[in-house]
Amino acid sequence: MSTPDDDAARLAATSLPSDAVGLLEGLTTTRAVRRYRDEPVPGEALRAMLFAATRGPRAEAAKKLIGDGARRIWGSKRRDDGYDTGSGQLDTSPKARMARTMQHFVDEFERVPVLILPCLVRYRDPMPIEGASIYPACQNVLLAARALGYGGAFSSWQFAVETELRELLGIPDGTFVAGTITVGKPVGHHGPVRRRPMRELVYEDSWGHPPDWAVDPPGTQFTAAGPREARDPSSPRR
Q: What predicted TM-score, i.e. pTM, was given to this entire model?
């Protein structure tokens, strides 16, 4: 039976696993995954995602604390945004599907295999652009998870319980807890990321005027969500 020292020595001599997903495929298919299989994520995969995984002794308590905050926030959003009204009453509608997924996510939060709290140690006063380094790092974690066949989701559930979380984990003052990342093996499968058509998002020379080259590739799937104030009248409505 190997010892922890043996495992550490083995990992120190082992290269990262090969990336089975190309960069462009990863960028276009790394969507939020909120349903996970009830199976652990091996240390080798965590190492590849984070290069180092630090597990505190109070991880389960942190999951419970953040899960409580997640359920409160989602409960208010579900009510305030009318997820159970209008098209939300149709089981097959996107709104109803999202409500079911989110409800399952918060109800089973304590069972997620991995919980990551990305933190930024401030060396100057808070400023609007301070997320310029921490948030790309969060996306890299999700992309690395995707490359290894895992799925993840980024949320801000921790804000609802930040005071208690800081006390529980001993997070020092001056450290910004940027978000909550959950990771696990997807129950379903990775699929296309759905966004608004490019012509509603990319402008050239002046606001509201999409360039001629802003054409989505064949087979692109779109979402009906998002603001439409700046939509070009000629763009497709889906």
A: 0.68
